[in-house]
Amino acid sequence: MDFERMFHEHQDRVFAFCYSMTGSRAEAEDVAQEVFLRAWRSLREWDDKRVAELSQRAWLHKIALNVVRNRVRASQSRPPLAASDAALAVVAAPGRAPESAVESRWLAERVAALPPPQREAVVLVQVQGFPYAEAAELTGRPLNTVKSDVHRGLASLRRMLEKEEVLVG
Amino acid sequence: MSMVALEESLRRLGEVKAPARLAEMVMDRFAVLDTPLGPFFVAWNHDGVSAVYEVRHGEPAFRAWFEDRYRRPLVRSESGPPESVLRRFDMRGVAPFQRLVLEKTSEIPRGEVRTYSWVAREIGHPKAVRAVGTALATNPMPILIPCHRVVRSDGVIGNYGAGGPLAKRRILDVEGVWVGELEKLARRGVRFLGSDTTHVFCMPTCRHARRVSDEHAVEFHSEREAFAAGYRPCKVCRPAEAA
Asked: How far is the CA of B152 from the CAs of B28, B111, B197, in angstroms?
């Protein structure tokens, strides 16, 4: 098993997952590091057959999901969004898709602030492009629950966007 | 913002790229480094050097040792470690006591030596001389953390993890330590050298001691003897606590 190759193949996807789950680049780096170290430790113990049958992308996301869940449990509180962040809303003009780094940060912070089940569902399905069925398997929740979590998560993101646009507009 | 635009923004969030340093946070790299004792494997990451290992044991042995010790992956690097990396050390995998010993040891200048009991006193554990010996014998970064610059106070150069006592003599020689002179002094029981003009006493290899001309040099067998003669310890090599 060529760990280095696996790392280079998946590092961007894993990092994007960690970034949208935590809303912070620094935290995303720590989580992604932990994910790959855990993956390496598992691969070391497994036999070739088990490694060959592995769906790397789903497996790495499963580990990442666990790392994020454990960290939230460990800290138990999410710091509130800094007041200055509201000012960034100005760049997300209505109907315009985020293009710059500032905008993706702005959005990641709001996604990360969603209640955990909605955040997991929105990130897996909307950000990472997993089918609903796979998202259900990864989160260990029923398919219909995941669907409604995505729906509710999107609705609340949209409400946040509209509110903050009014705020700065 | 329309739902379509929001979904498009989320999809783009998934295109964020991992920072270049993530690779260094996950994998240590290694290359072969030429040293005064021949080629050594050197491993490093974003925090600095993490391991130095004798090439003659072979790459598989190095890997196994590294990965068991640190529980992190190690991959081969196309190029050698950057100059800036060689001056920093990643001590995360080192136990607190050993870390104290290694950090203190890395302060010993090239061309000079100190004793095990000197290290023990300097780190605030004057009685832990043996533990200092053990900590240095298992130094995971020999040569770069100069454990070869720590010798026994009775003048015996002592053992050396990276190639035995002969290798230790050789590298000290390369660094400009007069090993033979040092041993002769130690055999006569001389531990410190003082200057009768400054009334300061030093470890024999201290750069200040070496500047003292023969007619002004005074030999001491113990710190008590030096203090009794009215000398004070050098502030650079700190051969003893100030009286």
From this structure: 34, 16, 29
